[in-house]
Amino acid sequence: MEFRYLGNSGLKISEITYGNWLTHGSQVENDIATQCVRAALDEGISTFDTADVYANTAAESVLGEALKGERRESLEIFTKVYWPTGPRGKNDTGLSRKHIMESIEGSLTRLQTDYVDLYQAHRYDTETPLEETMQAFADVVRQGKALYIGVSEWTADQIREGHALARELGVQLISSQPQYSMLWRVIEGEVVPTCEELGISQIVWSPIAQGVLTGKYKPGEELPAGSRATDDKGGAKMIERFMNDETLTAVQRLQPVADELGLSLAQLAVAWVLQNDNVAAALVGASRPEQVTENVAAAGVRIPAELMTRIDEALGDVVESDPGKTAEGAPQARVA
């Protein structure tokens, strides 16, 4: 395993970070989830990312139980706040002071820890003054319940404003957690340059494009049984933007590049996002322990410049690079 500094801080995290979105507490049984966490630890992963909204708080509980007994100082545990949790009452959502202060307590209890290493704003809250949000985050840090703060899917302008307020309050906003993959590059135009300037790293989710970059979806062929593209509980909706013959055909053109590097297509996808110097970690999940082992093989891989060019040529126009997609996909009001 390789380790990278997170933003302009002294915190090192594993460049392959284990995330339990869409798996723990919902799609896989708890014993399998625990096996996946144990596999991650065995492979040298020390950083674990979750959120209170995942499986309506159950994912945090599963992760906390799976990590019980591990030396806390050897782990980096991240969680997030914003989306509705619990009974979805009027204040069970957003980034108000009330919701943040109550949510951190719930997260710490479920994770069975006194603090998280990183507490992240899971989206931007258009209904709460940013000053209120950042003051609450600063107080969480001063209380010792979080060491650093971060954001997820914020625009470049929102990140800049949040970073300035955090600095005034004497706390460190050191990370951004956006979607990023060979197919989804919307952060490259504005978010990454802004974060490089401010000393903020990316912790990227969906580096394999929800499984599309594994190559298992073939143009014109029936969808694999049990795959995300057949999941009517939300998985199919998440992946539909990539499920067209043009994109699936382009992904198949990546196979010779992967073969030349001795990687699977999934490993190539993870290695690709890690070529970006502003990326501190690629978030990977798993429904089986073997998937963890496979993904970790991407750690430390360097893709030569000529092969990076071939990847771009293979994918051509199917790549989405419009920086406006970050704002377009953001909630315009709190979700109740």
Question: How would you characterize the overall build of this protein?
Answer:
By secondary structure, the chain is an alpha/beta fold. The protein has a single domain, classed as TIM Barrel. The protein contains 13 helices and ten strands. The chain has helices at residues 30-42, 58-67, 97-111, 130-142, 156-169, 191-198, 235-239, 245-252, 255-261, 265-273, 289-296, 305-315, 324-328; strands at 3-5, 12-14, 16-19, 47-49, 76-81, 116-121, 146-151, 173-176, 201-204, 279-284. The strands form two sheets. It has an eight-stranded parallel beta barrel with strand order 3-4-5-6-7-8-9-10, surrounded by five helices. The protein has a two-stranded antiparallel ribbon with strand order 1-2. Strand 8, helix 6 and strand 9 form a beta-alpha-beta unit. Helix 2 runs parallel beside helix 3 and helix 3 runs parallel beside helix 4 (130-142). The longest helix is centred in the N-terminal third of the chain and has 15 residues, at 97-111. The N and C termini lie far apart (40 Å). The model has no long low-confidence stretch (mean pLDDT 92).
